[in-house]
Amino acid sequence: MFKSGRLSRPSSWGKVTVFLFVSVLFLSFSNFAYCAEVVYGDVNGSGSVDSIDFALVKSYLLGRISEFPSPNGIKAGDVNGDGEINSIDVGLMKSFLLGFIGKFPAENVPVVTPTPTAPPKKGNVTYTLVKVANPTADQLDAYNRIQSAMDKAVSFYNEYTSITKALTVYYEPSVSTADGNINGTIRFGSNRSYMNHITAMHEIAHTVGVGTSDKWSSLIVNGVYTGPNATAAIRAITGDNNAVIKGDRTHFWPYGLNYTSEVKSDQDLINHCIIVDAMKKDGI
Ligand SMILES: [Ca+2]
Ligand SMILES: [Ca+2]
Fold first, then answer.
1. Which of 92, 135, 161, 223 could pair with 123 as two cysteines, CB 3.0-4.6 Å apart?
2. What are the phi and psi torsion angles at 280 (to 5°)?
3. pLDDT tens digits, 137-167
4. 116 CA to middle of ligand 2, Å?
5. How confident is the model at residue 110, as a pLDDT?
6. Which ligand has the minimum distance to the alpha carbon of residue 42?
7. 275 Cβ contact list (under 8 Å, min separation 6)
8. Is the dihedral of CA 75, 81, 87, 88 positive or negative?
9. How far is the CA of 69 from the centre of ligand 2 (A)?
10. pLDDT digit string (tens) for 67-78?
11. Residues 230-260: tens digit of each pLDDT
12. Please, which residues have CB less than 5 A from ligand 2, an ion?
């Protein structure tokens, strides 16, 4: 819908102001993040390691000072990364200043970046891709794509669920998309756009019981999944104590991977695993 020219001008100036404000915020934040990086040995925050830092670390060790000019000083002074500043660090700084070493042991300590993932579990989902003896070019191509899809799908299930299932996978061109049966069979049709790990994970969920087990239909009441474990899981994922999983006779959502477009990152795949694992505990 178009707005009148008279209204649009003040509104775009408003946008420019907001843009500038956000830019300044962003610049200050990135500047802060940059300054927060630790230069090991540089306890006064001058940007380099020299005799002043050495003197400061010695003074700290002797108890003459209890903090450093740099807010990162305590971390920067622990040049071997063992969690404390002691004579080893003083010795290492001396070696550095004399040119005997070019960097500090702490620089080799890997930085652990926490990622928003679930605690790993140990599932045991395996699959066998059934192949014909003398495959055509079409079959060979399909086998390769299905294998890549299944390898990735199974690795997610084995890392983030405790489900055990032996699957048998077929390339069946007459299947319109792909399907999964509780007997452990997964079939991929000829449409290559469904030969991906997201579709494969969706079908694995069917083999586990989503929409296929006797228990499934009794767990769905008025379009809402009622099993306690998976309901607790969606509440933990969303942080919303009233969140529920919606479902019908065959599918559930969110995180049912009913469309590949649902997946924005690996976390969506992990959340799918967490929920299916919890559904399994609910007895599907
Ligand atoms: Ca310094
Ligand atoms: Ca140390």
1. 161
2. -60, -40
3. 999 999 999 999 999 999 999 999 999 999 9
4. 30
5. 66
6. 1
7. 230, 233, 234, 237, 245, 252, 255
8. negative
9. 18
10. 999 988 999 999
11. 999 999 999 999 999 999 999 999 999 999 9
12. 78, 80, 82, 89
Q: Count Cβ atoms below 10 Å from residue 232 Cβ, excluding itself.
A: 15
Question: What 3-state DSSP class applies to 278?
Answer: helix
CA of 83 to the centre of ligand 2 (A): 6
- The predicted pLDDT at position 272 comes to 98
- What's the 105 CA to ligand 2 centre distance in angstroms? 9
Helix (H, G, I), strand (E, B) or coil at 246: strand
Question: Phi and psi dihedrals of 70, rounded to 5?
Answer: -85, 135
Which bound ligand lies closest to the C-alpha atom of 82? 2
* 166 HSE (CA, 13 A, CB side): 1
Q: Which pLDDT score is estimated for 24?
A: 41
Pick the CATH number of 51-108 from 1.20.120.530, 1.10.1330.10, 3.30.1050.10, 3.40.50.150: 1.10.1330.10
What ranges in the chain are assigned the alpha helix state H? 5-35, 51-61, 73-77, 87-97, 137-160, 197-208, 214-219, 228-238, 266-281
Distance between Cα 34 and ligand 1 center (Å): 16
**Would you list the domain boundaries of the chain?**
51-108, 124-281
The overall average pLDDT reported for the chain is 87
Q: What is the pTM of this model?
A: 0.59
pLDDT digits (tens, 9 = 90+) for 31-72: 333 335 789 999 999 999 999 999 999 999 999 999 999 988
**Ligand number with the minimum distance to the CA of 40:** 1
**Ligand nearest, relative to CA of residue 77:** 2
Give 74 Cα–ligand 1 centroid separation in angstroms. 13
